[in-house]
Specification:
Layout lengths: L4 E3 L2 H8 L5 E5 L5 H13 L3 E5 L9 H6 L4 H11 L3 E3 L3 H4 L18 H4 L3 H16 L3 E5 L3 H13 L5 E5 L19 H6 L2 H14 L5 H12 L6 E8 L15 E8 L2 E8 L6
Parallel strand pairs: 1-4, 2-3, 2-5, 3-4, 5-6
Antiparallel strand pairs: 7-8, 8-9
This protein binds adenosine monophosphate (AMP).
The site of adenosine monophosphate (AMP) has 16 residues, from helix 2 and strand 5.
Length: 282
Amino acid sequence: MSAGRVVATQAELRAALGDTAPGLVPTMGALHDGHLALIARAAAENPLVVVSVFVNPTQFSDPDDFARYPRDPARDAAAAFAAGADIVFTPEASAIYPPGAATRVEVAGPALRWEGAVRPGHFIGVATVVTILLDLVRPARSYFGEKDYQQLQVIRRLHADLALPGEIIGCPTVRDADGLALSSRNARLSPEARRAARAIPDALQAMVERAGEGETEVSALIATGEAVLRREPTLAIDHLVVVDGISLEPLTTLTPGARALIAVELDGVRLIDNRELRNPRL
Ligand code: AMP
C-alpha cells in the first residue's frame, strides 16, 4: 500500500503534484472493484496517481438521488491507496465551483440521446466537472469505465473539442460473478431484484452471441435481448438500443464498433449496461 495523501483544496492538490503529470481517476466515491481496477491500471501506467472523490452536485437531476448517494470518505481513501493511488482529492463543492460560478460545459452529439434525454442536465454536469478536473490536475492520462459507455464517448468528444490535456483511457467493465456490472447502485436492490438484475448481462450476452453468429439486423438483435429481459416481469425496460460506438446514433444494421446499450428500472433503481456487438464478417 502506498503512503498516500488526502488533499481537499486546489492549492494542496497543486503542491502535492509539483511538476508531475499524473494518472487521474475521477470518481464519486463508494469505491468498488470497478473503480479499483481503474486505479490499479493508472498505477501501472503512471508514476503518480490522483483519485478524485467528489459527488458532483451539478450532474444530478434529482436532488434526492444526490442526497442519498453513499458517502464514506475514510473508507474510500483507504481503498484507493490500497489499489495504488498516491493522492486522493476530496474537494468540497466550493473547491470546485467558486462562489457565483456561472459557466457550464455542454456537449451535443453523443450527449443528446439515451441518458442525456432521460436525465436533463446530467452530461452538462459531467462535462463541466471533467473540464475543471482535467484543467486542475493536467493529467498525462485519465481513466474512465466503459460501464458508463455514453459518458465515456461524451468525455472523448469533450476532450477532443476543448483540447484538454493528456489521453483518455477507456477501461473494461468489471462484473460480479453472475455478470451484473458492478455499480454503487446495486447495493440498493432487494435480494429479489438483485436476482432479477441478472437478466441485464444475460440479455447483452444473448445479443453478443447472435451478432457473433452473423446476425446484422438490429431489429432482430434487439428482439433477442428483449426476449431475455421480458422473462423478468419486475424489470421495466427504459431503453434497449444498438448504436454507433462513437456518435451514439441508433443503427439499423450492425457496423464495426456497434454497441448495445441497456437501461432498466428495477425496484426503483435505474441500472445501465452495455456491450460491443461484433459480427465476425464485418
Ligand atoms: P462513478 O463513481 O460511478 O462516477 O464512477 C467513476 C468511474 O468508474 C467512471 O469512469 C465509471 O465508468 C467507472 N466505473 C464504475 N463502475 C464500473 C465498473 N463496474 N467497471 C469499470 N468501471 C466502472
